[in-house]
Amino acid sequence: MKRKQPTREKLLDFTFEEVYVHGYYATSVDAILKKSGVPKGSMYHHFKSKKELVLAMVEERLFVKMDSFFSYEKKEDKSVMDSFRDTFIMVSKNKPLVTYGCPLYRLMVELSATDKAFDALLTTKALQMQEGIKSLLRKGIEIDEFNHTLNVEDFSMYMLGTVWGILSLSPTLSSSENFLKQSQYILKELENYKN
Fold first, then answer.
1. DSSP assignment, residue 2?
2. Which DSSP letter does residue 58 get?
3. pTM for the full model?
4. pLDDT for 19-40, tens place per residue?
5. pLDDT score recorded for residue 75
6. Fold: same for 1-61 and 70-195
7. Domain 1-61 has what CATH class?
8. What residue segments make up the domains of the chain, in order of their start?
9. 44: helix, coil or strand?
10. CA 123 – CA 139 distance, rounded (Å)
């Protein structure tokens, strides 16, 4: 027997789907309620507003998905370079990510300039992602895979921005093959710092 999903969890899941595909402003509370099958009164029992619902979704759904989408960690038996390559391959196999782009980046573009609460929350996660890349690059220097001329601060921001840029192409221009092809340029740039 399938267990019924609690209302709050259902709302967060459907909010993620709707906001990811349509964006914050184009997503209505009515669309979320219709898809989730949750009555309006039940939603307002858990969340006072659409903004409160989406902020909760960002923290409880989006951030978890970001960690699974972009695993910037060194695999024990692999080089740092191969660890980045594996992450890019993993991203290329994620059809929604390739089709719709990075959900964090999309929300940052849509909301950061106009809403301080969203900006603070989304920027925190972006900086955490950059820190994961920096940590991996530092590990590469530490194990002598890369030389000390590699500026981890600058290169990590370049990598984060470039990956988001590749993923932000229109669905017509996006494909797994295109993402992999374009991400190879990041790896070629990183090779300039190899020992």
1. P
2. I
3. 0.89
4. 999 999 999 999 999 999 999 9
5. 78
6. no
7. mainly alpha
8. 1-61, 70-195
9. helix
10. 24
